[in-house]
Automatic annotation (TrEMBL):
Topology of the protein relative to the lipid bilayer: Peripheral membrane protein
One GO location term (cellular component): plasma membrane
A Pfam family this chain is assigned to: ABC_tran
Major enzyme class: hydrolase
A GO MF term: ATP binding
Domain of life of the source: Bacteria
EC number per UniProt: 3.6.3.17
Coiled coil: none
Subcellular locations according to the entry: Cell membrane
Protein's UniProt name: Arabinose import ATP-binding protein AraG
Record keywords, A-Z: ATP-binding, Cell membrane, Hydrolase, Membrane, Nucleotide-binding, Repeat, Sugar transport, Translocase, Transport
Length: 506
């Protein structure tokens, strides 16, 4: 008999990967077919990124085999993966802003005419590629002048400009795109699919995965839970496979309104030009308001905007008074502190602990034009003791502290300023359990003393445990508010953030 079953283009057989203390992937088996869009879904820590990094040679697998068109691959780096026909487009774009579109697409392989670059040929070839996918951009345009959405498309076209690429991996490709831009991206993905190429689509966004993919694989705790066609997997079932719990979406939790308190911060139709829909929200004095969202939800944009790093439109009132926050200096003057998503942008690694703690209050440390070193040391020692920073040595360079203790130093810096409002963006990401517990407890203690905290997180369990209220963002707008999150199931928050309840008020 003739075998009518299609042959997989890419085969992943029993692939496993361990990191210290974590089994990131456990015997993953997966087939990817030519001309299919295959979505891989899972919560944070499910193993999606680890699998992608193995497929393009960023990290080695511990065991198992990867076959492309029946040939076993031994990928030691992304260059070898690309030569084999596998390309990855990261969620953090790698284009060079001061080079043109054409120069970026053909970077490292510019056509030559004799010993010179053949600019005419490169621009013509780029034009053909852009026209093929109806991307209306001039090849001579500097990439840095393009919108994020246009840059995303150029990054994808750069990957498929290698004619031998058979597998295109997209890591959270819609995280920074608006609704119309996502639709345009999906049109291009369907065109790429029609050419027989395979697309692996990594995402947190369940509704988008269901819309664009042919098949869906769900990973949980490093294991494959299920692979099936999207016709057999509705959003409720996917949430169940991702979390291990089923939600009755028809009787989705309604929570009573919060009791009125003094309003510390009021947002009226606040947003950016990027998002059409705006946010209106009251944040009360002495509460922890958790802002929960997945990648690209707008939560970090909101945090940065409230601290003056991003331009926000709309009306902001601080304790009833309208304010315009267009620079971090203004935010600090108004009594707002900000712990960024990436502590590398908040700490000065070459300076010791005490200098990092007192950095935001140096003016208070100066008397008659002289920096009071002794006073500076006393303040630092107080917070080292209060936050249990280890080692308890204020002269130790930040560089040599663990991630958890570095984060405590950053928290100490802002608490030393005695802010009225503290914005914390993913404050416990990448730190150990003990440090998480200590930071959370200290924050709750400060809130009892009157501090107002805006706590940004993409961890649903952390949202439940930390928040007096939990606001869920998606595509720059509030889709759900949970006023009494204790006892809430994380599946409910994840469902709202993933688009299962998009547009419904809770």
């Amino acid at each position: 008999m003739v075998n009518l079953e299609p042959t997989p283009s890419l085969v992943i057989k029993n692939v496993s990967k361990k990191f210290p203390g974590v089994e990131a992937l456990k015997n993953i088996n997966l087939d990817i077919y030519s001309g299919e869009i295959h979505a891989i879904l899972g919560e944070n820590g499910a193993g999606k990124s680890t699998l992608m990094k193995i497929l393009v040679g960023i990290i080695p697998r511990d065991s198992g085999e990867i076959l492309l068109e029946n040939k076993s691959l031994h990928l030691e780096n992304p260059r070898l993966a690309l030569q084999a026909g596998i390309a990855l487009v990261h969620q953090d774009l790698s284009l060079l802003p001061y080079l043109s579109v054409a120069e970026n697409i053909f970077l490292g392989r510019w056509p030559k005419k004799g010993i010179s670059i053949d600019w005419e040929s490169m621009i013509e070839t780029t034009n053909q590629l852009l026209n093929r996918f109806q991307v209306k951009v001039d090849p001579r345009t500097l990439v840095g002048t393009l919108s994020v959405a246009e840059q995303q498309l150029i990054e994808i076209l750069k990957a498929i400009s290698h004619s031998h690429v058979k597998i295109l991996l997209l890591d959270e490709p819609t995280s920074a795109l608006s609704g119309e831009e996502i639709n345009r991206l999906f049109q291009i993905l369907l065109e790429i699919k029609s050419e027989g190429k395979s697309i692996i689509f990594i995402s947190h966004k369940i509704d988008e995965a269901v819309k664009i993919s042919d098949r869906i694989t769900v990973l949980k705790d490093g294991e494959k839970v299920i692979t099936d066609t999207k016709l057999n997997l509705d959003e409720k079932t996917i949430i169940y496979h991702m979390t291990g719990k089923y939600i009755d979406l028809d009787n989705f939790r309604h929570t009573p309104p919060v009791k009125e308190k003094n309003i510390a911060l009021s947002l009226e139709e606040v947003g950016t030009k990027f998002y059409k829909k705006k946010i209106s929200l009251n944040i009360y004095q002495g509460e922890i308001l958790v802002v929960f969202g997945l990648m690209g939800s707008g939560k970090t944009t909101l945090a940065r905007g409230l601290f003056g790093f991003e331009t926000l439109e709309g009306t902001i009132r601080l304790f009833g008074n309208p304010v315009i926050i267009n620079h971090p200096k203004i935010a600090i003057h108004l009594g707002i502190g900000y712990i960024p998503e990436d502590r590398r942008f908040g700490l000065i690694y070459e300076l010791p602990v005490y200098a990092n703690i007192t950095l935001a209050i140096l003016k208070k440390m100066i008397r008659n034009g002289v920096l009071q070193i002794k006073k500076e040391h006393e303040v630092a020692k107080h917070y080292v003791h209060a936050l249990q920073i280890k080692p308890p040595n204020i002269f130790r360079e930040i560089l040599y502290l663990s991630g958890g203790n570095q984060q405590k130093v950053l928290l100490a810096r802002w608490l030393a300023r005695e802010p009225k409002i503290l914005i914390m963006d993913e404050p416990t990401r990448g730190i150990d359990v003990g440090a998480k517990f200590e930071i959370r407890n200290f924050v709750k203690e400060m809130v009892r003393e009157g501090l107002t905290v805006i706590y940004i997180t993409s961890d649903p369990l952390e949202a439940i445990e930390m928040g007096d209220r939990v606001v869920v963002l998606r595509n720059g707008q509030i889709v759900t508010t949970f006023n009494n999150p204790l006892g809430l199931d994380k599946s409910e928050i994840l469902a709202a953030a993933s688009g299962v309840h998009y547009g419904r008020e809770k």
